[in-house]
Amino acid sequence: MIRVIFSTVFLFLISMPARAELPPLIPRKTLFGNPVKTSPEISPDDKYLSYLAPDEKNVLQVWVQTVGKDDARKVTADKKRGIRNHMWTHAPDILIYAQDNDGDENFHLYSVNLQSNKVQDLTPFPNVRAEPLEVNRDFPDELLATLNKEDPKLFDVYRINLTSGEMKLDTKNPGDVIGWHTDPKFKVRICSSLTPDGGAIIRARADDKSEWKSIIKWGQEDVDGSVVDFTADGKSIWLTTSEGRDTRSLVKRDLESGKETLIASDPGSDVGQVLVNPVTHEPEAVAFTREKRKWKTLNPKMAEQLAFLEKANPGDVSLVSFDRHWQTFVVAYGSDMHPTDFFLFQRPTKRETGIRQALTHLFSSRPELDKYTLAPMKPVTIKTRDGLEMICYLTVPVGIEPKNLPMILDVHGGPWGRDQWGLHPEHQWLANRGYAVLSVNYRGSAGFGKKFLHAGDKEWAGKMHDDLIDAVNWAIKEGIADPKQVAIYGGSYGGYAALVGATFTPDVFACAVDIVGPSNLVTLLKSIPPYWEPMKKIFVLRVGDPDKDKEFLESRSPLFKADRIKIPMLIAQGAKDPRVKQAEAEQIVAAIRKAGKPVEYILFEDEGHGFARPENRLKFYAAAESFLAKHLKGGRAEPAEKGEPTK
To answer: Other C-beta atoms within 10 Å of 198: how many?
Structure first.
């Protein structure tokens, strides 16, 4: 009898469906530590491949190897912060990179000579910001760079000899220029400025001895247009503009007549990456992204080769680097459920008949991620209460029913940026911990046309926040989110949005995480870096005037509503942040504590606007993970490692 009962129970148990459960925890280091390798660049002569990878002390360095050989070697020796970007010049065996001091954004430009192993500071000036402008195939020993050396508010153009390091003033800023462009002869011939009324003006000159003449004037709505390149003869320019249409498009403009020819446009999204052939100076493909990236090709050869690349591997295709002959490319494949994969793509030469393309795998940026179960990122369109369409991205946990879940509203920064489809480490981290994650391209986000962008003007904590609440209500109505278990989380503007969520709509959210977010719009606008001064009019038009609109801006500032906070808060800040100063965090922390409300505050002494050092990133994510699991029911956390906070 006992045996029969046991058998019956056993049969009943094995016939039951498996209990839904989350997959194993993905370690924070796998998601947020340094990548194994990333940012590959092909040298102009296609002899070398460079990339970023950590050294034995886990500091990101530039590494170089001969194409086709396994001879990689480290060519930089940064001591602490890690190198985050680099580029090749046309000088034989010379590349450059930028580095600042603990996030202060006063970047210096350094050159690396692969033959002598010499690293040289090309811009050794304290409290000066240097940015590379352009290199040119026909002037291999020269680099054009912009520096605010004479006036912290203005950037002049300097010509730097890459061999000797000698630097000479090339073009003086007349007082309002925020952008420069060179022609195929490596002469600065185009400059762009903002006008007093918030529009933009493009000026051109025949040569470096001629006077600047206005060729284009845009109003406030079209200010985000830009010059892409000159044509090979220097008589026309390739330009992105929204003038006369809603979305920003690619046009060709004759400099003498002013005639514009439409090259590529999309009614639902602004023009994105433009692939310009460096030999012919002709654009060959243009990317548009509404939900996902789509390529519009401009010649049959590129159409055939992009089709080949799109079929070769799953994911979105990006061409991230190319040689001087437009024959060898570094190609990246991006996906929502796999780390970025990089390949070397070699096009057929003109002498070859047929299409004999070679695609060689280089590396995956985070191969360890492929050992874990990742969650798909789904584009969804959510309508605002006044009828605008927001392209949003939803990620739900794998292994459990996506119903009545704790949810994180992850708000992007900018705000004049956007969220995109792809591998989003925070989405994967949070979904793996048991949360639904929703990212929202609220009004004011870039990429969806000027009407959508400017619908956010002076709507910080207004309609821009209404959009976030509408997205939360959508998730609740769809049955995805538990209305009592929603957190708001974000960095920069997203951090501000988290503070707004806790102060303006304190009953909507269960907790909030603010990363380098401003708390007082008046003090934010009065403390912007000096080199943003020419762009101040943009902030005045889109946010408000800190002098004339002080009362309005204070009414949209979380600091003055801190007494309304009744949910737990986590605030993280970089002490060297030049954009959102340390005071922005500390004044709201003090106000919350004065009101007797709960707040956790983390200050990173050696960080700026965001957390570049992996040890700091991991410390923050450990604290955020513990905070969310504590205040949202259903979330889980990876145990803290040595040196990480436990609460």
So the answer is: 17
